[in-house]
Amino acid sequence: QITLLAKYKKGLLVSAIYGGESYERQFANLKRGTQIVVGTPGRVMDHIEKKTLKLDNISMVILDEADEMLNMGFHILSHAREERQTVLFSATMSKEIMNITKKFQNDPEIVKVTRKEITNTNIEQSYYLVKREAKFELMVRLIDVHDLQLTLVFCNTKSKVDEVVDELQANGYAAEGLHGDLRQAARNQVMNKFRTGNTKILVATDVAARGIDVSGVDAVI
């Protein structure tokens, strides 16, 4: 997106660094000299430690999902020069976030963007008290009874995602998993299959699923 925005800005180079892509390609992109680096916190820290990314002359740092990066994200800030602009994006401004702003920002301005509530009014919420070993059976029964076409299932660990996907596929359901161990190309492939309906059930960890924008989802479990 930044590359598209800078289409007519000659000489502006943008580099993306994230896990799942070879270091060699990222080394080459950074070595050529780049004005904007967009990256995941883990891979950014890797490059800082390898001294292939230096923040000595950086003029601006932007942390997206700041509420989710209280540790690693702000560890990155400690490597940047003090004379810089620091921008934090967060859906929530918790006490922890506000305390961090006092440490890394000088006299910061808080900008709140409000918009009309976009939550659908026809969403029905239900919960079931069920033994752990009966969760899977209840889930597939709900999918069958309600003839759910697109379903998003959240698990709290990567291993649980893989376990649920394996069990769904073994029972004949078109299911795919999404979690942090997948390479970016594999994540894109999984999401495209879910958007087009080739995958009926997407099982994901909450972190991997942040930012998913798919219309027509029948249920979230």
What distinguishing features does this structure have?
221 residues, alpha/beta, 4-stranded parallel beta sheet, two-stranded parallel sheet
Description of the structure:
The chain has 221 residues and is an alpha/beta fold. The chain is 34% helix and 14% strand. The strands form three sheets. It has a four-stranded parallel β-sheet with strand order 6-7-5-8, with helices on both faces. Strand 1, helix 2 and strand 2 form a beta-alpha-beta unit. The longest helix is centred in the C-terminal third of the chain and has 13 residues, at 158-170. The chain is globular. The mean pLDDT is 86.
Distance between the termini: 31 Å
SSE string, helices as H and strands as E:
HEHEHEHEHHEHEHEE
Radius of gyration over all CA atoms, rounded: 21 Å
- What spatial order of strands do you see in the largest sheet? 6-7-5-8
What general form does the structure show? Answer: globular
Stretches with pLDDT under 50, minimum 5 residues:
none
- What's the total number of strands? 8
Query: Helix/strand/pairing class, anyone?
Result: alpha/beta
Given the structure, what is the number of helices? 8
- Tell me the fraction of residues in β-strands, as a range: 5-15%
* Biggest beta sheet attributes: 4 strands, parallel
Q: Summarize model confidence as the mean pLDDT.
A: 86
What fraction, in percent, of the residue positions are helical? Answer: 25-40%
